[in-house]
Every structure is written in C-alpha cells, then in structure tokens.
Design goal:
It contains 4 helices and 2 strands. The protein is mainly α and 94 residues long. It has one domain. It has a two-stranded parallel sheet with strand order 1-2. Strand 1, helix 3 and strand 2 form a beta-alpha-beta unit. The chain is flat.
C-alpha cells in the first residue's frame, strides 16, 4: 500500500457508514421500550461501531429521549492484543 499499488476496500471510508452504525443504539433503545442500558460493551476492530454507538447515544441524549450518557466500553480480544505486541517486538509493525 505504501507504494500506492492496489487499494484498501474498507467501509470506514464511506461517509455514510457512521450513520448506519448509530442504528445499533437505536435498536437497543427501541427493544428496551424507550430505555437505555447503563453500560454498553462493544467489540472494537477499527472503532466504527463504538463511534457510531457514541453518536447514536449522543443524539438520543440531545433529543431528550434519555437522561444520561451510558458508559461506553470498547475492547479487543486478548489474542489480538498479544499478536500486536509480538509484531511490535519483531518490528513488523511501525
């Protein structure tokens, strides 16, 4: 990728993708009959679901549909973190 050959086909670069990830929170809100959980635990790959959840909750808060911002926790699998650390040690990742 550094030499500009090929392309990276990722949904992250689609400006509408973040709008779609907000629906995750709207679904929770709807399924709980207009209530919101105290804490959202979200798997994090590149962070788009976490970001969308934040935007969705922020909108519900701004509209007065919920009273407080829930805690939002993002996490990786331990195996992914350990692999990343190994790559750093081998200097395969800059």
């Amino acid at each position: 990728m550094e030499n500009r050959e090929g392309f990276y086909a990722s949904h992250v670069y689609n400006p509408y993708f973040y709008e779609g990830t907000k629906t995750y929170v709207y679904e929770i809100f709807e399924q709980l009959n207009g209530n919101m959980v105290d804490t959202l635990v979200i798997p994090v790959g590149n962070g788009t679901l976490l970001l969308g959840a934040y935007y969705g909750v922020r909108e519900l808060l701004d509209l007065g549909l919920i009273e407080k911002m829930p805690r939002i926790i993002g996490g990786y699998r331990l195996k992914d973190v350990l692999l990343f650390i190994r790559l750093l040690k081998k200097k395969l990742w800059k």
